[in-house]
UniProtKB/TrEMBL annotation:
It comes from Pelatocladus maniniholoensis HA4357-MV3. Residues 5-120 form the Response regulatory domain. Keywords: DNA-binding, Phosphoprotein. The modification 4-aspartylphosphate is found at residue 56. SMART domains: HTH_LUXR, REC. GO terms for biological process: phosphorelay signal transduction system; regulation of DNA-templated transcription. One of its GO terms (molecular function) is DNA binding. This is Response regulator transcription factor. InterPro entries: CheY-like_superfamily (IPR011006), NreC/VraR/RcsB-like_REC (IPR058245), Sig_transdc_resp-reg_C-effctor (IPR016032), Sig_transdc_resp-reg_receiver (IPR001789), Tscrpt_reg_LuxR_C (IPR000792), WalR-like (IPR039420). Residues 157-222 form the HTH luxR-type domain. CDD domains: LuxR_C_like (cd06170), REC_NarL-like (cd17535).
Length: 229
């Protein structure tokens, strides 16, 4: 079985060392390169063609979200944002730029390999803190009229050209809450394979490249329920 190849783009040498050490402890992961800024990181990705790029949001030459977009526009690499910055604007911008997963730097080191494996499988790691930020951000942008828009859009996606089934709406709701495929399967009493099939169809119908993009679209367009709305 081939290893998951990861490039790390982080400007702090000590942090890079810690990430390399944590990931190298997993025999199914190979760190195939390191870079200290976005320019070198993008060049390294083009050369190494890794499976995943682990990117710090605050790089000396460019914002990590900006780099994420450049990566996505250049090569089919999944991007994990790893940072201490979990403000609403930063998190939302990163996902809109195509980030597949978003982790806070206080994540336990043994969890980092989990994030890499989940992202490699096509899932998005959105921990509860990030999920709350996304929902709160979208909720703050709505008003009384958003309730009417929510039901209008939901009918469009259920009955219109995109035809999201009721079960796909259920799965989309749980994706927006930050649940992994395994948790969704447990919650809905279906197999992981069935969940993956639902997720694949949801991404196609919503024209999204990742679960995180689908979650943002679902919340912003009122396709799922959000707390307090």
């Amino acid at each position: 079985m081939s290893k998951i190849r990861v490039v790390i783009i982080e400007d702090h040498e000590l942090m890079r060392f810690a990430i390399v050490t944590a990931l190298s402890a997993n025999e199914q992961i190979e760190v195939c390169g390191e870079a200290e800024n976005g320019f070198l990181g993008l060049s390294l990705i083009k050369k190494q063609n890794p499976d995943i790029a682990l990117v710090d949001i605050n790089l000396p030459d460019m914002n990590g979200a900006e780099l994420c977009k450049k990566i996505k526009d250049t090569v089919p690499v999944k991007v994990i944002i790893l940072t201490a910055d979990n403000t609403q604007d930063t998190v939302t911008k990163a996902f809109k730029c195509g980030a597949d997963s978003y982790c806070i730097k206080n994540l336990p080191r043994e969890k980092l390999a989990e994030v890499v494996h989940a992202t490699h499988r096509g899932e998005s790691w959105i921990d509860s803190t990030i999920g709350k930020i996304l929902i709160e951000n979208m909720r703050n942008q709505t008003n009384v009229d958003a309730k009417n828009k929510k039901f209008h859009n939901k009918r469009e996606y259920i009955c219109g050209v995109n035809v999201l089934s009721h079960r796909e709406i259920d799965v989309l709701q749980l994706i927006a809450q930050g649940m992994s495929n395994e948790k969704i399967a447990e919650h809905l009493y279906i197999s992981i394979g069935t969940v993956r099939s639902h997720v694949h169809r949801i991404l196609q119908k919503l024209s999204c490249e990742s679960r995180s993009q689908a979650a943002i679209k679902a919340i912003s367009e009122g396709l799922v329920e959000t707390p307090g709305l």
